[in-house]
Specification:
Layout: H1 4-17, H2 21-27, E1 44-47, E2 55-59, E3 79-82, H3 85-90, H4 94-101, E4 103-106, E5 111-114, E6 118-121, H5 144-152, E7 161-163, H6 180-200, E8 204-209, H7 211-222, H8 225-231, E9 232-238, H9 245-255, H10 269-276, H11 287-290, E10 296-297, E11 302-303, H12 308-314, H13 321-332, E12 342-345, E13 350-357, E14 368-374
Parallel strand pairs: 1-7, 1-8, 8-9, 9-12, 10-13
Antiparallel strand pairs: 2-3, 2-6, 4-5, 10-11, 13-14
Helix pairs in contact: 1-5
Bound molecules: 2-acetamido-2-deoxy-beta-D-glucopyranose (3 copies).
The site of one 2-acetamido-2-deoxy-beta-D-glucopyranose has 4 residues, from loops.
């Protein structure tokens, strides 16, 4: 997180420094046919990173609360489940939150779902105020600076500026993969782009940060090529890796999610919750990139990107092996370009975790971290 913040602060500057070349290209109408309409600005859709979207829940009759008080909202309609995490603590709702947020992998459909009786939805789709960080210590982590810079350039909420919040507990599918949650999300995103585009007679720019970049990439790759050509002006991905990078994803699985999502409690059961999310097994290192490099080092044996299934078993996550094999490995091997104009912003030459040492194989203590050259996340 610490490493992301400087980059984020830099983004509006980058955006403003891009003129006259890219910025002019992004904001002026310089294209053929579709791009000759009224106004100056190409509509922009923003996607911020992990945990930035809010989530609402409602509890139906089928819900069986872990303790009776967790059933208090049963039958009472939609309420905020992930919106103000300080409030979760203040209301004594953390235990209920953990039960109502958790996901299950269903081998029959090869997809993830909520607990029976828990329905969830992402509010404020399309609004340019859909994302906000839950951590009061860095309230602007969710693309706020970029949004403000765009507003200074003349962008307006629900006219030229939009956000596409998504359920970040789930992983966006590569083309051909099933995901009930994302197929609905992609339909809404598609309609949003089409409406914004036809209103302004311009193609649309998608600007995404961190995990939002992975969602934006899969959205574009899941659309037909003709649609992309017709509607997408530019895809801008800033540090589009999982939150805090590949080694931190391993560390998150082992030790908990405090690097990824913010809940103001040291309750170790949050690690259990995090491990139920599809996102927890996303972004493990791919053999295509990391090869046989030892990534986790213990006295007995080392684990490379080839050994992730054994590593999941070693940390007690046997249940995650099947979804990892069936949902993540195919994504690791999917290399099709999005085939739209694209800019990718990444750090280089920054101190980056490269290896985790759990010498005594005690996964309940923090590892020693070996750093190397990388993008800092
Ligand atoms: C979040 O919840 C806390 C604790 O209930 C409260 O003090 C704070 O004002 C809330 N923040 C917002 C932005 O609503
Ligand atoms: C957004 O704009 C559309 C028209 O372009 C309008 O129908 C809709 O009500 C607006 N939504 C909000 C939340 O203002
Ligand atoms: C694990 O990797 C380290 C290098 O990072 C190496 O020194 C060590 O010999 C390896 N251990 C085993 C058991 O292969």
């Amino acid at each position: 997180m610490a490493a992301i913040t400087p980059l984020l602060r830099l983004l509006p500057v980058l955006l403003l420094l891009l003129p006259p070349a890219l910025l002019k290209y992004l904001t002026a109408s310089n294209g053929p046919a579709k791009d000759t309409g009224v106004g100056e600005l190409h509509p922009i859709v923003l996607l911020a990173g992990l945990g930035c979207s809010d989530l609402e829940a409602q509890l139906t009759e089928a819900y069986q609360p872990s303790v009776p008080r967790c059933g208090a909202m049963k039958g009472k309609g939609w309420f905020s489940l992930w919106q103000n995490t300080s409030d979760l603590l203040a209301q004594g709702y953390v235990q209920c939150f953990e039960q109502q947020m958790r996901l299950f992998y269903d081998p029959a459909t090869n997809d993830y779902r909520n607990l029976p009786g828990v329905e969830t939805r992402v509010p404020k789709f399309g609004s340019a105020r859909a994302f906000h960080d839950k951590n009061p210590l860095h309230p602007k982590r969710c693309l706020d600076n970029v949004r403000e810079a765009l507003e200074e350039l003349g962008y307006r909420d629900n006219d030229t500026l939009f956000e596409a919040p998504y359920d970040w507990r789930y992983v966006p599918p590569a083309p051909g993969q099933i995901s009930q949650i994302y197929s609905q999300f992609f339909q809404r995103f598609k309609a949003l782009v089409e409406t914004a585009s036809s209103k302004h007679e311009k193609k649309v720019i998608i600007f995404a940060h961190s995990y939002g970049g992975m969602v934006a990439l899969e959205f574009v790759r899941n659309m037909p090529l003709a649609w992309r050509n017709r509607y997408i002006k530019h895809l801008i991905l800033s540090a589009p890796t999982p939150s805090t990078g590949f080694m931190r994803m391993i560390q998150g699985l082992v030790s908990g999610s405090e690097h990824m999502i913010y809940v103001p409690t040291s309750d170790t059961s949050l690690r259990t919750l995090w491990r139920t999310f599809e996102t927890s097994i996303m972004g493990l290192p791919s053999p295509n990139v990391f090869g046989h490099e030892p990534l986790v080092v213990t006295k007995q044996r080392n684990y490379s990107a080839y050994d992730m299934e054994e590593f999941l078993a070693a940390i007690g996550l046997e249940d995650s092996i099947e979804p990892f094999r069936r949902r993540m490995v195919p994504k690791m091997n999917y290399f099709e370009a999005p085939m739209v104009p694209m800019t990718c912003i990444n750090g280089v030459g920054v101190r980056t975790p490269q290896q985790l040492l759990f010498w005594e194989s005690d996964y309940d203590i923090s590892p020693e971290i070996v750093y190397g050259d990388g993008d800092g996340i």
